[in-house]
Amino acid sequence: MSISTAARAPMSSRLARLLPGVALCTAISLVSFALQKVETAYLGHPLVEGLVAAILIGMCVRTFVRLPARFDAGIDFTAKQILEVAIVILGASVDLPVLFAAGPALAVGIVAVVGLGIASGTLIGRALGLHPKHALLVACGNSICGNSAIAAVAPVIGARKDHVASAIAFTAILGVAVVVGLPLLAPVLGFDHYEYGVLAGMTVYAVPQVLAAAFPVSPLSGEVGTLVKLVRVLLLGPLVLAFSLIFRDRSAGTKGRIQLGKLVPWFIVGFLALAALRSAGVIPASMAAPMRELSGLLTLGAMAGLGLGVDLRALRSVGKPLLLTVGGSLAVLVTASALLIKVLALHG
């Protein structure tokens, strides 16, 4: 066997392993896209946006169909890697001066909401009887970036595996409910598209859910929400560094070790780089719409992967204190964000 043949073999094996899950996500995204087109044709506008439909269909498939394990690798790949590519491509369609129209007040508001979310979520969990580290995991997941924050914080603070699993399972499920419900708040609060994008970016659990909650409202809401969410993700680095110092003497072994390369995800760098090129005119304005469309199509597949990762049956294993902690923490985030948007005048 030649060297080139040997090199191609692992690649073909990996593609074969990913194919079933990627194909399933693609099929769900196509159905969701078609549903949105039908709704628009007959109703004038979609009642359920394609991004939300993809999540809901994926959840139903995962909950009511026993999928073989061979689908898992492709589903995970679509929900994570494809989404990251979609976010990078989205950067080529945004104009940074427009997104930063709120000025330094936006950065101040993001930091304030994240800090308040972590503190209040931890206190609520403690008051409801959760283990302190369990409460802290839930608070960090809600306040920063969901599963990534929980996974990064858990080894640093020495959290138990069952606490990690339950925090991830329930916050993911509740996050889908927020995707469906949050857009309904925009008219109630009197927010314009920029303000709603800030609200979504400050409050929604994870990056893909921000896209699903914000883009159906408007492209501007989606772009602002994405930027705000990515700034929240960047706060994970300082947070983990702080926890490594706080818990250093309480943890053993490698629990205090930090992999700095994982604290600034590559897709954030890519998004900002393409956004800077677009703002500088290197990427022409005529490319904005096609790049946004391509990003949207990839995101649709990622939403299907996200839904396929949520099993509603997991609710049966979640206790009432955890449910109330996640819900209470989220309520604080939404309330604080809405107030800050008004007080700091965070509008475009």
From TrEMBL:
Transmembrane regions listed in the UniProt entry: 50-69, 81-100, 106-124, 136-158, 164-186, 198-218, 230-248, 260-277, 297-315, 322-345
Superkingdom to which the source organism belongs: Bacteria
A GO cellular component annotation in the UniProt record: plasma membrane
Subcellular location: Cell membrane
Keyword vocabulary terms for this entry: Cell membrane, Membrane, Transmembrane, Transmembrane helix
One matching Pfam family: Cons_hypoth698
Claim: Disulfide bond is one of the keywords in the record: no
Membrane topology qualifier: Multi-pass membrane protein
Keyword Transmembrane helix recorded: yes
InterPro entries tied to this protein: UPF0324_pro (IPR018383)
UniProt record similarity statement: Belongs to the UPF0324 family.
Protein name per the record: Putative membrane protein YeiH
